[in-house]
Design brief:
alpha+beta, 2 domains, hypothetical protein PF0899 fold
């Protein structure tokens, strides 16, 4: 009986020892799997964090570019409005010329016309009074082939139109300034708004 108990104890000890080894092997495999999963999780978390940082960086750069574009557009709009205002004020200043300045401008225009043709001047409604001034009448005396329309005006305009043979040459100040604006705006913008 003692032998049976000893044998039993021996089998039990051996089974226990083998069981303990298997448990240790399983624990080692499980620990390896846990470590492998932990490494994957760490790597995944690192990748996710990099993606988030890249996304935030891209969002920041896009937002910064949008703000820069909006700022540039706002500044450009202000510059364009300022140039537009400058040209409008130039046309208004011309409309307010005194009779001497107006006569000088008129003489400059008339001196370039073919003196062998008959010309007619149609005043702008805002310049009719200046055509009655002594300075303008004196300038017109030098050009006997030029007459002023008595019953016709260009409504709402300062300056005049010169007509010959059904062709109109527009010297209304707002039109002249608009032509100058097309030609000189880029140069003026460059000069006026250098950084």
């Amino acid at each position: 009986m003692k032998d049976l108990q000893a044998l039993s104890a021996q089998i039990l000890a051996k089974t226990k020892e083998e069981g303990q080894k298997k448990i240790e092997q399983y624990e080692e495999v499980a620990n390896d799997r846990v470590e492998e999963q932990r490494q994957k999780l760490v790597e995944s978390q690192k990748n996710r964090q990099e993606q988030i940082e890249n996304q935030m960086k891209n969002d920041y750069e896009r937002e910064a570019q949008t703000l820069a574009n909006n700022k540039r557009n706002a500044v450009l709009g202000k510059k364009q409005a300022l140039l537009h205002d400058v040209f409008n004020k130039a046309a208004e200043k011309m409309a307010d010329w005194d009779s001497q300045t107006f006569a000088s401008f008129l003489s400059g225009v008339l001196s370039q016309l073919d003196q062998d043709k008959q010309w007619q001047i149609v005043p702008g409604s805002r310049s009719v009074a200046v055509f009655q001034s002594e300075e303008v009448k004196a300038s017109l005396k030098d050009y006997p082939n030029i007459s002023i329309a008595n019953d016709e005006v260009v409504q709402g305009k300062a300056g005049f139109i010169v007509q010959e043979g059904g062709i109109d040459y527009n010297f209304c100040f707002d039109v002249l300034v608009q032509e100058m604006k097309k030609e000189f705006s880029p140069q003026l913008a460059t000069l006026a708004f250098k950084n």
